[in-house]
């Protein structure tokens, strides 16, 4: 069941989302060769605690970190580590903050120094997929209008769209309804209504959309070991259209 949120509840979710947004604003200029994802992890956790928020991912289903740090061919759920990032890497940092019982969720991909033209194109197209998907998240439209737009744009550039990891509703719980893949057909799927709060988080791959899970049970990696990229916002549906709660 989709839980529609009141304006008051949306504002409470926005506060949690803005803690996540501050985390991303803070690290953006720090992503350079030599930084480790453990350092990024520490910065995110410090910012959350400063605002009285909790790193919701820490302890979630046994996950041990405040962030997911996914580099190059890792699609999602990579572990932070002490391995320095190097020139040419792309890294996706994903986190969820809990504030006063409400959750905010955003992932963002970052270039480490000078990256390849292929990586630049993948990052650009993935961000465009997010923006185009958000534009379609209008009251009265259907989720298929969002997902088909994302799929069409990514595949028109020769890229894959991950099917096995889902976007989701969010509020008091991390994975509320609706849950959905970023592929579909226009005019199909759940009708989008005012009061819905959910993520749009396309995971786009250089090659195949198929993935594997490492032996750690978490790290999702492209099956062909080619690059992956992700951008994610939490959005609220209002009478005026979608609002980006995690805007940064």
Automatic annotation (TrEMBL):
Specify which residues bind substrate according to the UniProt entry for this protein.
Answer: 77, 175
What reaction does this catalyse? Release of N-terminal amino acids, preferentially methionine, from peptides and arylamides
Q: Which InterPro entries match?
A: Creatinase/aminopeptidase-like, Pept_M24, Pept_M24_MAP, Pept_M24A_MAP1
Name what cofactor the protein needs: Co(2+); Zn(2+); Mn(2+); Fe(2+)
Q: Which PANTHER family has this protein been placed in?
A: METHIONINE AMINOPEPTIDASE
Q: Quaternary state and partners of this protein?
A: Monomer.
Name the UniProt record assigns to this protein: Methionine aminopeptidase
